[in-house]
Design a protein that fits this description.
alpha+beta; 53% helix; 4 strands; 4-stranded antiparallel sheet; 3 helices
């Protein structure tokens, strides 16, 4: 009876400790993903201001049709914010920013321009037949 109690106690302790480790790893992953998402919002707000300032210098008839934003992971995560816009004549104009966001939520533009936006909006132009090639 004593052996059974010891074995059950050992199994119970192992189960509890394993569950705790798993929870900690999940919490860490959840927190990391939340931080990436929060920084993507900061990057989007920063890019919105930059892009509106850019449009103000060129043409007041410009209108944003679509905004895409997110991040991709690398040694240092990079946040990308892209815009599809019209100048009243051409509805397929694009522009994007690649942005770094530091721990103080300060943003720095790493790259910008229509070439930066190409991969965000290029796939929306493809048709099903394009994908099979």
């Amino acid at each position: 009876m004593k052996k059974v109690s010891i074995i059950l106690s050992a199994l119970l302790i192992s189960f509890v400790l394993t569950g705790c480790n798993s929870k900690t790893e999940n919490d860490y992953t959840d927190n990391a993903m939340q931080e990436l998402y929060n920084r993507s919002i900061v990057a989007k707000e920063f890019a919105d201001k930059e892009f509106h300032n850019l449009l103000d210098h060129f043409d007041s008839a410009c209108e944003i049709l679509e905004t895409s934003y997110g991040f991709y992971t690398s040694e240092t995560p990079v946040y990308i914010v892209g815009y599809k816009y019209t100048n009243g004549t051409d509805d397929s104009l694009t522009y994007a920013y690649k942005i770094s966001v530091d721990d103080n939520q300060s943003c720095h533009i790493l790259e910008e321009g229509k070439d930066t936006a190409a991969f965000l909006f290029e796939s929306s132009k493809k048709t099903t037949s394009d994908l099979s090639d």
